[in-house]
Specification:
The chain is α+β, with helices and mostly antiparallel strands. Helix content is 25%, strand content 25%. The longest helix has 13 residues. The protein is globular, with a radius of gyration of 15 Å.
């Protein structure tokens, strides 16, 4: 479990520490949306990765993201192949049953040293699908780690729930 009350960071991405939204792009978001993003500092980013790595969140993956959840650590694993239909993707995300206000952490899988984890809401993940699910592999979790959304760069999303720790 991750204690999000102990995480520190800032409301706006630093000029040299960002992913997904460059500072000029971020400033173009509405103030209401900007307020739902929190960019973790290096210490908090490292602490979250330490917890996630200690529980083998992708459960049996090959280390490159090609076989997530392959060892049966979750009771349910669903997948969605992206096909350019953003509306279909948003519906699929909505049907995962998470409340829009759920706080989530976005963890780039192949991050650079200066890439922060982003804390936001499930609503923002659903709103900015084209931004988050376009490029490199990404893990999205909440603080309980009872479910995991994994985006693979081949445009496949996996949603695993009901983890058996």
């Amino acid at each position: 479990m991750i204690d999000i009350t102990q995480l520190t960071g800032m409301q706006e991405p630093e000029p040299y520490r960002w992913i997904y939204f460059a500072p000029p792009q971020f400033r173009e978001l509405s103030p209401e949306h900007q307020d739902q993003f929190y960019f973790l500092d290096a210490a908090s980013t490292d602490a979250v990765y330490e917890v996630v790595n200690s529980v083998d969140l992708l459960c049996g993956d090959d280390g490159w993201g090609n076989k997530p959840f392959s060892e049966g650590c979750y009771r349910t694993v669903e997948h969605f192949k992206m096909s350019g239909d953003e509306g279909g993707l948003k519906k699929w995300l909505y049907r995962r049953g998470l409340a829009f206000k759920t706080e989530v952490l976005l963890l780039p899988v192949f991050k650079t040293e200066s890439t922060p984890i982003i804390m936001t809401t499930w609503k923002m993940v659903s709103k900015y699908t084209a931004t988050f699910f376009n490029g490199d592999n990404l893990i999205i979790v909440d603080s309980s780690l009872s479910w995991c959304l994994y985006y693979h760069h081949d445009d496949i999303l996996y949603f695993a729930r009901d983890r058996s720790f």
